[in-house]
Amino acid sequence: MRFPVDHPLTRRVREICLPYPEATEVLAHGRSTFRAGRRQFAIVGAAHDDIGAVEFIPDELERPALLERDDVFVPAYEGAYGWLALRVEPDAGDWELLAELIDTSYRQVALQRQLRALDGA
């Protein structure tokens, strides 16, 4: 595991992800993944990348602008399915942007009842 469950990066991402309705953390392929039901919306660490990064599903309209950033890249494996990754460290990086990207990612995979719970909160 590159980023175990007690790693500072994992803890910070957990703080962003777990408040979402029905969000869970599941260990998969040596990484913490965050899910809305069964569908993943955030992954701590990018495959074959030892620098801290968080994978997310971008809004397709925002994808080109995100890819112009130096801290955004197409991760191995999940990148083939439209995922991107943002490089962040527990004490550095654009955490406000990451929170927005995770929100977008969650909304793309969440069930209608989860979205109603989120927007009603």
From TrEMBL:
Natural source organism:
Microbacterium ureisolvens
Checking Pfam families in the record gives: YjbR (PF04237)
Q: Which residues form the signal peptide?
A: none
Q: Which SUPFAM superfamilies match?
A: YjbR-like
Q: What is this protein called?
A: MmcQ/YjbR family DNA-binding protein
The domain of life for this entry's organism is Bacteria
- GO-annotated molecular function: DNA binding
Write out the entry's keywords from A to Z: DNA-binding
Gene3D superfamilies per UniProt: 3.90.1150.30
